[in-house]
Amino acid sequence: TLRSTLGFCEQADCACFQIFGMDVLLDEDCKPWLLELNSSPSMKIDQTRPWLEDRDIEFPRCTCCDFPVPHIHERCVCDSVVKG
């Protein structure tokens, strides 16, 4: 965390930063409401979900260690727009 590197950065003359993620909801008056603050937000724009035989037959099954069962990696449209 940033707090744990505070003394180090002053001694080493380096620039430190930490990224926070905020989930905000806008009401009908465009007033922002903070829903959640994340200290380590994901910067990925894809998601991992279980591979379903009846739905994903045209996609290859992945068995990497990201997910405990056969799965598929797909781009999340919302994250692509926001983070892309």
How would you describe this protein?
With 84 residues, the chain is α+β, with helices and mostly antiparallel strands. Helices cover 21% and strands 27% of the residues. The protein is built from two helices and four strands. The chain has helices spanning 2-12, 77-83; strands at 21-26, 32-38, 46-50, 71-75. The strands form two sheets. A two-stranded antiparallel sheet has the order 1-2. A two-stranded antiparallel ribbon has the order 3-4. Strand 1 and strand 2 (32-38) form a beta hairpin. It is extended. The protein starts with a helix and ends with a helix. The mean pLDDT is 81.
What key attributes describe this structure?
single chain; 84 residues; alpha+beta; two-stranded antiparallel sheet; 2 helices; extended
